[in-house]
Amino acid sequence: MTEAEGPQLVSLHDEHTDPAQDVRPEPGAINRSCILALDLGTTTGWALRSHDGLITSGTVSLRPGRFDGGGMRYLRFTNWLTELDRLSGPVVAIWFEEVRRHAGTDAAHVLGGLLATLTAWAELRGIPYSGVPVGTIKRHATGKATRRRRR
After folding, report:
1. Quick check: 38 pLDDT over 90?
2. What global pTM score does this model have?
């Protein structure tokens, strides 16, 4: 696959599927369906294109409370995904920002846990998902992958 073709959705739900096979929904079907895009983190950014084409976006805080156990953020994330799917779905594809490196160990651990939670949730429902490299997102938004954020 060339970078111009873009990332492909991956689903390991069917063990008889060749991993190299394109498992995206049929052309046109995805245009009538709910697609979820995520920027995973303690404050997770999200965008949802509903079946009627309406795009909604926002953030969800997954910061643990003072007395929460270590797994509560992941349970909250699972419940949030389930509720989003129930109210707006069904979600047919999930795209998330693919982070290659982190400045801190804690952030990397949180990302790993959220990614594991997301992929397990999607696998249980047979929803294809794929990571999109940061450079691809920047290139799409700005026309140049090296564009820096304004602070």
Report:
1. yes
2. 0.70
